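Cross-posted from the bioinformatics board.
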Amino acid sequence: MRTVHLAGETDFDSWRDAARNLRLEGVEPARVRFVVGNGRDGLFGDEPIPPRSSNRSFTVSKAFVDLAREVMLHRDADRYDLLYRLLWRLQDEPNLIKVTSDRDVARAVEMAKNVSRASHKMKAFVRFRQQGEGDNEHWIAWFEPAHRVLEKTAPFFARRYANMRWSILTPDGAAHWDLKTLTFGPPARKEDAPQEDEIEDFWKTYYASTFNPARLRSKAMQAEMPKSYWKNLPEADLIAGMIADATGRTEQMVNAPAPEPNRRFDQVKAAVVDRAVTDDVVPENLDDLNAALAGCRRCPLWRDATQPVCGRGPKRSRLMIVGEQPGDQEDIAGTPFIGPAGKVLDKAMLEAGLERDTVYLTNAVKHFKHTVRGRQRLHKSPSAAEIDHCRWWLDHERALVQPELIVAMGASAARGILGHTVSVNDLRGRIEERPQGALLLTYHPAYILRHPDPNERIRAQKAFSTDLSLAAAYLKSTGKVLS
Ligand code: URA
């Protein structure tokens, strides 16, 4: 028996050289064993392999090499023996790889599929957490891949998160990106990675609040997010409890009496039903504007909303922040940005040194657009026409508040300010000086909360904080105090 000692688990080149020599020497698969490591110096164990004679050679198809490169990432200890068996047989059966009913081929193809799935899951389930601030900022993730896919998958993260300094730590090794170069280091331990960060709490609250127990499909959910990955997913802490509660919560939903009609809703509608607002009525101050807003019939959104949500903040402010439209909680309370999106905004404002009391906060659309599903009212994006109708109010707010800088969060806010559609991704993060006052486009906090890709949430949250800091720096550079 020949034993070939490979230097590492994914040492494909050594396997290929050894396999080629063994094949040329006619060493049958039953007489060879490939093992990883165990302290031997050379590649070959019991007997030295005679040097390859230069006039004998053979070639294999690219399809086999590609398959072999995937299979060697599998955790099965016999994978290199299987590959040698295939290599051996290829000489007499050149089309073997196409025979999917063959046991060896079928096993290799299945292993390659497992590896590809592990790489896919890694792209979906790596969760970065922030360590350090400013120049020391570093995003670190702990991940336990089902197979040895770190080196195969790390270039995806380098492309996707090219502007973040990050490390992915795994029990097989670590990948590091320093904004320029991707490098690999030794295996790490879970304790080497941060265990949680601040944005995670917001996101967990949001994740739990969007969970509808009546729509639970735990089999489908577990197929997409296999349990083996749960231990390293922040949101997974919540899943078991939510599933356990689901039956009880569904029963409660079914048995609950129909909700009382919202009395405030009816009162507001009754009071304003006759108050028409026309383009000639120019509000002279914010109080007039807000009173007139109660009678707004410019578009049909008023019908299903509890009330219009007016802007909040000083009557004059150097900074105006514009969102899209009130959410469920804002609609009920009549105050902008008090729900989950407001929490993300508050955090970023705090980090940027912006005090909420000194900022005028408003929305492009003043009524909550939604659809009703069961007892939930789900956000629906306003149409371009609805934003355009509501511009009348936003324009008057701007004229009264006279901000030096407007921060427009998201595409609806941008349209509300500019009157046409722009791409936030393309234009965000730059202050544009305009005759009517400077403008800075940024992400909407709900984008950060709702994006299905956790790493995109992190990237967008970081960009959002940077943008608000830019707004604060701009105001500092042009004046002393904010309001
Ligand atoms: N989202 C917004 O755009 N505005 C709010 O007031 C709340 C959530």
